[in-house]
Amino acid sequence: MYKKSIVKGAAILTAANLITRVMGFFYRIYMSDAIGAEGIGLYQLVMPIYLLSWSITSSGFSTTISRLTARENAKKRYGNISKIITTSVLLCIIISLATSLVMFFGADFIAEEIIKDYRTAISLKILAFAVPFMAAGSCVRGYFLGMQQQGIPAASQVLEQTVRIVVIVVLAPMLAAKGLEYACAAAVIGVLLGEAFSCIFTIISYNGFKKKADYKRTDDLSTAKCIMLILSMSVPLAATRISASLLSAFENILIPQKLQAFGETGEAAMSIYGNLTGMAIPLIQLPSALLVAVSTAMIPTITEAVAIGNKKRITDTVSLTIMFTSIIGIGTACLFAVFPHELSVAVYDRYELGELLLKLVPACPMLYLQIILSGILNGLGEHVFIFRNNIIASVINIIFICYLMPLYGTDAYIAGWCISLIVSVGLSTYKVIKLTGTRLNIVNWVLKPIVSAAAGGLTAKCVLNYLVPSRLIYILSAVFMLLMYIIFLFAMGAISRKDLKVFKI
Description:
This protein has 505 residues and is an all-alpha fold. The chain has helices at 2-34, 36-74, 78-105, 107-115, 121-128, 131-146, 151-176, 180-212, 223-261, 266-284, 288-308, 311-338, 340-348, 353-359, 363-379, 383-403, 405-408, 410-436, 442-464, 471-492, 497-500. α2 runs antiparallel to α9 (223-261), α7 (151-176) runs antiparallel to α8 (180-212) and α12 packs parallel to α19 (442-464).
């Protein structure tokens, strides 16, 4: 049953993630036409600050609520759940309001002294109003995930993205004429309204769900104990996310500067930055929608297993997800290696973007594995390890950005990112094996998928040579390659019918 719950939950979240990612691609495609690569670069400079505010106000609380809800539900202490949610939301709102005030009144300073681009000030002030909505919504979504009721979080994601798209389509043509900073502000207004609508929807859903739940039993958790319990779990998690967000923001601020040191003009550097972080990297991250969903659904499942001491359940869950991730990662890497230019044209109508995409291929398997391994370690409560791991990875990135980007440009950044992922995945894998006793099946999880992906890619490439090139043909060729990949996986025995039984809900 637990495998089914993971698969069912992941399927719901995956569907929502895929829908939002597809919508997001149309969103970015429209943005690239409406505000250009430089405008996207400006937007990408603002978003790390917003992600930092999320890390401060929401990240620790969301995961904490998910884990505590799953634990209390597993032990049938239903009365504690309502108190945990209420207390967490109040704490979260207090912190988010303080963060919003700092962001709003410090926008000019952040824009000029930290981001080094005064044009971002307007967007930062708008984003300040989004922080409380984001924080409250994240808390309530954590509750639904802990109860393994993924439908509401999934629906809220789709709603948020829908609002974003509608807003930028309506506002971008009007504001773009006033300047690049106002065009960027149009996208940011979409973020604000998306968070607001998503938050309201989630809270209304929670009130409706709570009426049906059995929370009338007397709780045995005092308010003081509840606050200490929440903070003891959320603070380490938040510290991990905050450090990661700070380092990520630092990296994103440095990249345009180091591209200028490499010899690019300010405008060219911002365009390259927009192409890299706003187009190429989001494209390789598209398949991670599935893995993020699996990781999210897996945390409460592992937490429940730890709470009741079911070691076999933990080991089986870890083995299933690592196998699943490895197969996806290798297949995706081969897909981008075989069709880099074709996919760039199909999605963005930018042939030259294929060069960046090809260079990012080695990152794919490691990136996807790290998502899953972080989810496993979160479920096991290894927050300190995750914190140290993130620090190590970020230090490697920053070294490459600071010292090698002025000499080698984007190649240095990509190389540093790939190396940091390899180190991070290696350390995480060792930790997971040590804690769970999971045995890695290198032949079925690595070697056979590599051979299957190569065979599928070669077959699809040969077929493409006989077809008239077009966006549709490129997409169909990519789909055909993935189908061939799956067929070869079965033919080589990397996936069996026994494995597929897990996915029968």
